[in-house]
Amino acid sequence: MSPGRRVYLDHASSSPLRPAVLEAMAPWFSAADPGRLHEEGRAARSRLEEAREKVASLLGAKPREVVFTSGGSESINSAVYGAFASRDGSHAVVPKVESAPVREASVRWAAGLRWVDVDSRGRVDLDNFAAQIALGDVGIAHCQLANQEVGTLQPVSEAAAVCKKAGVLLHVDATAALGAVDIDFAALGCDLMSVSCHQAGGPHGIGALIVRRGLRVTPMVLGGLQERARRAGLENVAAAAGFAALAEILSAGGTVDKEAAAAHDQTRRIRDFLETLGGISLYGPSEAAGRLAGLVCLGFQDLEAEPVLVGLDQHGVAAHSGSSCSSELLEPSPVLAAMGADSDRSLRLSVGWCTTDSEVVSACESLEEVVSQLRRLRGSMANPRLS
Question: Which CATH architecture group holds 8-16+254-386?
Fold first, then answer.
């Protein structure tokens, strides 16, 4: 790798802002309050509602179903809080591979949790899901659209049918999926869906909670009548304009499919390369159709993740261990533990909209060098006479 040039393979945590998104945001960084009646306020309101329409169109939802939030985590917390504050049922049904915001919000606001098993690929066990629902007294059930760590696509429509029959609200965490797969809120059949856009090249600081038309949930953030009294606080017009620009990009000419195809090709090259290293396990579905295109999760049989991460960073490669919600801590992965895999030694490599083939080659070369160095060091420590 040439000096000073870095390779960014952590798009699943956050992806660089697309230039067209930044351009769309720029005129609105000093936007007026959209709730005011003066000309400046009306202009901001118009831009905000235009953004709502474009985001709704991307997600297969109606504009009135879109509630802008500060990000995916707030959207998830709002869904869980709103469900328990508005409806009967004291338990949450939670697959063991759900993201940290889903798990922790459910712990905070549910009287009890019913965990749902997954298979060795991280896919939700629908029979176990249905059995937990059938126990009754459920305020909300969760089924993510795609897993944030190993990329597994989940059977959301089937889970929605189970919940509908039982009269239980279903919340879908789609934060890892936006931009990676086509999303159709209406077709999924769920009641609530959380999204964010920074993993696909959109701005930080904005997300959305999609609330099925006719469903009323108590707002978590109070103090104003913004977002049709569903989320108080001055709206982030600039970020909404950026979200809308991203929605336009992803909606145009099969962009999602084209970027997914490129990502599948790049991650296939990474997976093929990893098999040549030996001593490595690949996690999640092996078939491309069952997982997100841009994500590879692997485990080392003989190395810890932290020195590999440090070594890659020193070689100019940004990667991550575990999910994007646990970036501050290198703790065992609850996702891999639920799958019955080694939860202590995982590494996640994720490509994105701006990843080039040459960067993938450079990253593989760096990983080979780092792993070889660490294995030699490990061997010399095990046999001091070789050092």
Answer: Alpha-Beta Complex (3.90)
